[in-house]
Specification:
By secondary structure, the chain is of the alpha/beta class. It folds into four domains: 14-107, Beta Barrel (OB fold (Dihydrolipoamide Acetyltransferase, E2P)); 112-129 and 140-268, Rossmann fold (3-Layer(aba) Sandwich); 276-309; 404-442, no CATH class. It has helices at residues 14-28, 66-72, 109-126, 153-165, 183-195, 222-230, 247-251, 259-266, 270-303, 306-353, 357-399, 403-406, and strands spanning 32-43, 49-54, 59-64, 81-91, 96-106, 143-148, 170-175, 203-207, 235-238, 254-256, 411-414, 417-418, 431-435, 438-442. The strands form three sheets. A five-stranded mixed barrel has the order 1-2-3-5-4. It has a five-stranded parallel beta sheet with strand order 7-6-8-9-10, with helices on both faces.
Amino acid sequence: MSNQIPFAFDVPTVSELTDKIKTLLENNFRDILVEGEISNVNQSRNGHFYFTVKDDDAQLPCVIWRSTAARLDVELQDGQQVVLGGDLQVYPPHGRYQLIVSLVQQAGVGRLQKKFEELKRKLEEEGLFDDAAKKPLPAFPFRFGVITSSTGAAFHDIQSTFQQRWPVATLYLHHASVQGLQAAGELVKAIEYFDNQDNPVDIIIIGRGGGSLEDLWPFNEETVARTIFNCSIPVVSAVGHEVDFSISDFVADARAATPTQAVTISTPDINELRFQVEDDLQKLESLIKQKFQYYRDYVDRLAHSHALLVVQEKLKIHRNNVENLSEKLRSRFRQIVTERQSKIQHMANQVEQKNPKHAVQQHLGTVESLREKLHNRAVTVQSKKESTYKEVFAKLREINPKAPLERGFSRILQDGKWVRSRSDFETEKDLHIEWRDGVTKVSK
């Protein structure tokens, strides 16, 4: 160390060197764009977002301040391929640089197409596209869950098509963004909402109008695809493009090129049903008329056949026999009824002679006489008791120790005892004077 030659110029401090780097980077890397995959998303208690954007060989720390996040209204998730815009900033305390993000967009078409193909191949190998896993659409659904933007044209098209084709249906709209970084999460929440209802809908229609691959990308997210596959309700995907398919088209139970076609494939046409019913009614009416005519002719042929004439003759003979037997039965029945009536009348006369009502009437008279005697005896006894009670009450009043008090007198009590004579009175003790309406204490 002693042999080293000292520097002939000033050596900067760490802070001075960092300031130079800060000035150099921040002045030359403003309003830059960078593409990569988001990872390690973390939101602080202050509402700021901290994350990393990376590719295979490098990574860049990023920050979105709370006010910027509120303006962008995005939902950041790990694994999203995005284009970020902003300014590079050096943070001296940590000796690191980071991107202060002011713009977030979905990544370019080429990279998205590659990601689409990779996800499609992955889900296909897992069996999410198999026809055996697809649920059949009900023939006559009446409750529909519609997942799309409440402000877009897709829901208006769906509504108008339902009015024309199947007006008996009830639509339940669950708004979800169909474009942008937050759209995939909202689509997943909407599907899960319908799937968890106690009274679920018959079919879910999910989709939007047409657009570019970037616009339609939420319908290519893996979370959306798996949620559609796991949904217990049949799902119709209608992402609004004729030629290309989205991942949701492959995994859904049915695919429609447009929202209007989604209504067409999931509902019967009420006008066609009316025509079909009318046609079936006409066919049924014609068939019934043919059957009636056939059996009418058949009965007419039987009516003029020799076998039927023989049967009719036998029926006539048996009818006469039945009428003769019926007359004999009626005559015998009348005879039996007359005999029974005569016997009943004879027994009634005997009963009348032995009827106990005369004895009952006699005993009723005796009972009435005894009741009168009992009443008189009760009155006499009650009178005697009342007289005795009055005499006893008068004697009690005479010997009632409270009687003098009622007449205005008073008495003196000591130790709770009535002092009846002057010799019993003790002058040193407290006394109580008892009046008619109370007691007065006199202390010594």
